[in-house]
Amino acid sequence: MPETRPVPFRGGGFRPQTRRWVGLVVFAALIALAEWGTRTGWISNLTLPRPSDVLATFGELWESGLLFKHLGPSLSRLAVGAALGASVGISVGVLIGLFSYVRAGLVPLVAALFPIPKIALLPLFVIWFGIDEGSKYALIAFGTFTPTVVATYGAVDNVDRTLIRMGQSFGLGWWSIVRKIVLPGAMPGILSGLRVSLAIAIILLVAAEMLGAEYGIGAYILEAGSLYDLERLFAGVVILSVLGVAVSAAITQIEKRLLNWRN
Asked: pTM to 2 decimals?
């Protein structure tokens, strides 16, 4: 009787595996390379500060309390502006995906607004809402709104129509089809769009804070750049990078909770 060998299971469906240590190794290698290069003179200190000096700057920010004085207002502006833009964007995107008249009326408008550089509108928002918090909220909300709309109605359009027809054949009502088929099917695309929208929100946050803000990461970076203080400048950039990673991690956790039906 011929010998039988076990066949490995190949039904994983290209499910991504978590390899967190790989990212840590890449970051550590880049930081070690920068530290070695700046200490040996291979990289000029005029173009890139030593990571150890940037870390010391973080310690000074922490001890002086300036870290939270700058980070607190930035987080508040980002949360309010992004929440407004994303919530309205998702709502409008779903309406465009579901209703033909809404699509016919709003898609041309969204297509006209989407290519406009949002930073260029900052002076206009200052005129409309003043130089205080209102203009910053409006800029971040508007910059988050347009990509969220496009991603949302695109995700709704990509829902498998066979599933919708199947629901109709089983006698499901309109709202049941939307709630049980359309929204779950569109959720992966909506969350992917949110990743891009929130990254844009962070960029616009910095731009908004560079105009008329006493405290904020953008104001901190602008002040450091005007003084050519590379350690403080890179400390601010690292804070923004960590903020982006935190936002991405939050979206990942939401995906795990809302999209566990795909596993």
From this structure: 0.83
